[in-house]
Amino acid sequence: MADKSVLIIGAGIGGLSAGCYAQINGYRVRILEMNSVPGGVCTAWRRDGYTFDGCVHNLAGSCPKSVFHSMWRELGVVPAIEMHAFDELVRVERPDGAPLVVHCDLDRLAAHMKQLSPDDAAVIDELVIASRRFRDFEMMGLALAGPLGRLAILRVMPTLIKYSGVTMTRFAGRFTDPFLRRAFPTLLYDGPDVPVLLLLSFLGRMEIGDLGWPVGGSANFARAIAQRFAQLGGEITYGTQVASILTEGDRAVGVRLADGSAHHADIIVSNAYGPATIFEMLGGRYVSNAINAYYDSPEDRVEMGVHVSLGVARHLAPEPHAIVLPLNTPVIIAGEERDRFFVETFGFDESLAPPGKSVLKVVFATSCKYWERVHAAPERYAAEKAAIADAVISQLEHRFPGFRQEIEVVDVATPITTKRFTGNGHGFKVSGTRMMLAMLTGKKLSQTLAGLRNFYMVGQWAGLPGLPLVAAMGKDLACAMCRNDGKPFVTA
């Protein structure tokens, strides 16, 4: 029997991963990508010699001890890309005292926090002991585990139960020191409502060198997987907009492009924006109560939805790579008062800037609807972005004296930028409980659609966010295809 053909809509990481593993297993795969480069939201952009990264922060699988490391090897990321390990997670500064430095070495972290607040020694010890339980248990790694492999969660079940439902803010309330109470909720990308279990997992894994950075950033990372796909014989057609998914007798048979041309295949996979796939390309014909419930109330909040990226004629390598920076005076950014900035410096990756220079980025959570209203008036949109850049630069001048004069490039990206570049719209809505259940059971939100055969979805809209999880979903999808076709699944 001839090898089956597969059409994948979108060259995001999920689509690239599914394509690679499908090619390895004898399928003939073509990816249709609306953009001119691979990666989807895993992307970066160049401005006058500077590369501004739009995605990666801490990559699970950067360390060989991670279960994701072998997947990145199968996908061509390693050894092609060097992995940089961090020695700090973040540094929370303050104007009137020593900062909180979240060292990856947990003994060093404990000693440092006790120096800041000796009275909180018991809480600090509890934090470190709980974090160490995740050194050898990779919670996100459950995405690659089979039913028996998921039983490994039993080793940390008491810890999971103890901290289930506990947010960063709630745990912070246990500290007696006022600074630690203020600083602790910001430690994980300045997300006060993030489950503390996620921080415990980060601290445990970073102590063994995981959750680092792929040198060259998101674009380099995506290119490596696209190159692996090409080496396996796959084809990517760029600049190709899919308008609809063709069906016959409740079976997906192909796609129709925006230019009117039709392209057929045995299996259709969408790595595109979930609402666009389900309600536009398929016309809402294949939905379930769960899908309707999820998409009927779209998430307006977009975490890290605004990126203010700056190319500066300053060597920032000595600076912490992540800083929570309190402001002496709050400022209004995208219609909201902000009393602190989450700052990322990229001096540790010299490939992102000209020699002796660096990239710095400040990110903000924002409202998608706010930017839709502002964008309706192009002049207001441009003025708003310029005002945000000026406010950010003015505040950074206090932390980095002389900074304004050293700025060579300014770039402000918003949710409108993301939608124009990738097709993705509103924010992604997922609870910590849902993430845990999905990883434990392997059940995704919408990897298939009821009543539609020969069709799959992959990517965060089909399951869970994060590069390792969507890549694992692509691997799992190719495995499911093999299982349906009665053939063994191989990875090399």
Describe this structure in a few short sentences.
The chain is an alpha/beta fold and 492 residues long.
Characterise the protein shown here.
- The chain is α/β, with parallel strands linked by helices.
- It has 3 domains: 5-54 and 218-297 and 428-484, FAD/NAD(P)-binding domain (3-Layer(bba) Sandwich), CATH 3.50.50; 87-207, no CATH class; 301-422, no CATH class.
- It has 17 helices and 19 strands.
- The chain has helices at 13-24, 67-74, 106-116, 121-132, 157-163, 168-172, 178-183, 196-207, 217-231, 274-281, 289-295, 368-375, 378-399, 403-406, 415-422, 432-441, 467-484, and strands spanning 5-9, 28-32, 44-47, 50-53, 83-84, 88-92, 100-103, 213-214, 235-237, 242-247, 252-257, 262-264, 267-270, 301-312, 322-333, 336-345, 358-367, 407-413, 455-457.
- The strands form 5 sheets. A 7-stranded mixed sheet has the order 7-6-15-16-17-14-18, with helices on both faces.
